[in-house]
Here is the input.
Amino acid sequence: MPHIPSAPATENAAPATPVPAPPTGLTLDERLTLATTAMAVRLNEAAVAYEVNTAHIDTESVDLADHVTAPITPAPRPQSPAYPTPVAALLQRAHHRLLAGGWCNGALVDDDGARCLYGAIRTEAHGDHQMEADAAAVLLDAIRRQYGDDIDSVPAFNDAFGNGRVPIRMLDRAAGLADARGI
Here is the structure.
């Protein structure tokens, strides 16, 4: 009878390395923590990539107040503290006059009693031409700081807008500038 080779001896022998135990399942909290961590890493990498890819693009900042509109309510706004300097106080009064009485363009005062920037300053100056000129000069300076030296005058700036949001805000900024200058 022919000789049949027997099975290799290693089949019945114990394995040389221990077999790892099957992995235990992660809890929901552990899976959420891992997913959150992985997403945070991906978002951080994307943010860095975006900054690198757009660093060469010259951008201009956008003031959301110019684009986001909300209904104007007739409720009175809280008055900010009065400025102690005369020109700043005049500009602040002009600002409040436009908020309360309305803004217009193309005229010092329209048929409804709304005023332009210069009309509000003139009204609040009560005939003091020097105060009126000083306030207009500070307002023009504040406008030019924000929009460049191409602006010729306060009336030209006022008439460039279809609504009073930006011009009225510039009066408030000019009041702060006048106060900082002590005038």
User: Anything to note?
Assistant: Residues 85-181 form one domain. The chain is about 50% helix and 0% strand.
